[in-house]
Amino acid sequence: MVVYCVDVYLVQGGQDIFIKATMANREGTRKEEGNIRFDVLQMEDDSSRFLLYEVYRSEDAVQAHKETEHYLIWRKTVAPLMAKPREGVRYRPLSEI
Q: How far apart are CA 29 and CA 40, in angstroms?
């Protein structure tokens, strides 16, 4: 199992477009055989910060995800909204989901 937490920092005013694009990406990702979970979280006291919590069955599933049409559309759509590059950190789960 592979877990990624991705911190996202947006320019102010980009939240609505980001949320719409990210929820569409989430919907497509959840249909992928290799995806176990995909949560989208918005910081309560800073609406321009988000956390993406992604769980995949394997590293191959992660790589397959990065080649999907919905992911490529998402990446292109949200790129101009980023205040700084996304920060993805890989975690090792100590318990099963």
A: 12
Task: Please check whether residue 50 is in contact with residue 87, taking contact to mean a CB–CB distance below 8 angstroms.
Answer: no
Q: Tell me the pTM.
A: 0.93
Largest Cα separation within the chain, whole Å, is 38
- The CATH code for residues 2-91 is 3.30.70.100
Residue 50 and residue 5: Cα distance in Å, rounded? 10
Instruction: Copy the structure tokens of residue 42.
Output: 């918005």
The per-residue pLDDT for range 14-46, each reduced to its tens digit, is 999 999 999 999 999 999 999 999 999 999 999
